[in-house]
Amino acid sequence: MGPVLLAFALAALAWLLVAGSALRERHPVWFWYLTGYPVTTVRVLVTWRRVAQFNGLTVTHKPSRRIVGDLEVRGEPVRPRAPRISFPRATPMGLSLVVRLHPGQTPGPFIAAADALMHAWRVHGVRVTSPERGTVLITATARDPLERPGLASAPAELLCALVGALESGGPWVIDLRQIPHWLITGATQSGKSTLLARLVCQLAPQPVALVGIDCKGGMELGLFGDRLTALTTSRREAVAVLGALVVEIQDRMRACRAAGARSIWELPHTARPMPVVVIVDELAELYLTDGTRQGKAEAEQCSTYLLRLGQLGAALGVHLVVAGQRVGSDLGPGVTALRAQLAGRICHRVNDPGTAEMTLGDLNKDAVAVAQSITSQEKGVAVCTGTEGGWDRARSHLTTTEEARKTASAYAGMTPELPGVNRALKAPAGGDSA
Ligand SMILES: Nc1ncnc2c1ncn2[C@@H]1O[C@H](COP(=O)(O)OP(=O)(O)O)[C@@H](O)[C@H]1O
Ligand SMILES: [Mg+2]
């Protein structure tokens, strides 16, 4: 009987191991809930007092001075009290808990202790925030979810694009209805064009007009030629197309005013013009001048038109997604004003701290520091604006050239006409009269 039982136990153990590794591979979130989360929870609860003590997160209600005989003794009283924590709540690939601060405590020391918590709990990362007065929220992520961003599902709504994964484990969605215009920065080879490609792939099946402005030879957006209503590869063409788009939004404005609507979304379904997404890769190509008078005039026109689209486009269904290596005023005075219109921000790895500051500085100082810590190995990793005014670290899904070309040809039939824009592209000489 003994050997049979032993063989049975061994077989069961082997099955558990195989099933466990399969679960880990295929359903990492379930694997986390079933094994990682309980273990980490025990670790959090067991170590909390000591960790709090070592990191100066405790308080004491005893006085720090005592009279011993004739002596006054000062010192740290024993048995300091750690602040109370809630039971850790499981999140996909992590956990979160709330700390109730004692009177007199501030979130500062907790934020500083994030690294210590990360090591004590043996997790990939810990982030400390204080969404409410008197409490601190600690969120831990078990593994770097951006190593292999999984394909989560996203709402299939108009002008929404699932472009990657957030560090928190959720989908990274660019929602143009919520934030109409976006700025994407990063050094060369940091993943800007890949993100744009992913965005175009996601918008291609939707009833949306896509206009590409890629003045670095059109190599990136050229892949999507079949699905683009217009693609410009030179600044002269860009001026013509942007000018035509400004005329288009003026028409839309008139239509809205006549119907008593404040945006195209208030117009009846049948009368609503199609949303337009203008995608600009390598912004500097539009702004940098070669010193000639014509070049300067073109740059100024581009600047004026882009700004106009940024200011008026949101309500009229014209959206800007602008990618560039630098967005400083060295490109020209118009860039700062344009930047102010692009509320959505995405910052990949940058070479100069200035660019991270310009992209995220008005959002959050921590976000700037996180963006600056992205290494050159982490291609496609970026810090992005979140939905509730916060920020997140995220990684885009890699879109291959083949995939881009296939998507464009699969949805080529959905490419709408924008008569004004198409006319302007055919006769670019009319650009300077606009
Ligand atoms: N999300 C990603 N995951 C993996 N690799 C990526 C990702 N994004 C970009 N890359 C890699 O980085 C390289 C450079 O990306 P690219 O988008 O061309 O950068 P940029 O436009 O900023 O110069 C690409 O060839 C691609 O292989
Ligand atoms: Mg590029």
Automatic annotation (TrEMBL):
Residues at which ATP binds: G186, A187, T188, Q189, S190, G191, K192, S193
SMART domains in the record: AAA
Pfam families according to UniProt: FtsK_SpoIIIE
Keyword list, A-Z: ATP-binding, Nucleotide-binding
All residue ranges annotated as the FtsK domain in the record: 169-357
Matching PANTHER family: DNA TRANSLOCASE FTSK, SPORULATION PROTEIN RELATED
Identification of the protein by name: FtsK/SpoIIIE domain-containing protein
The organism of origin for this protein: Streptomyces xantholiticus
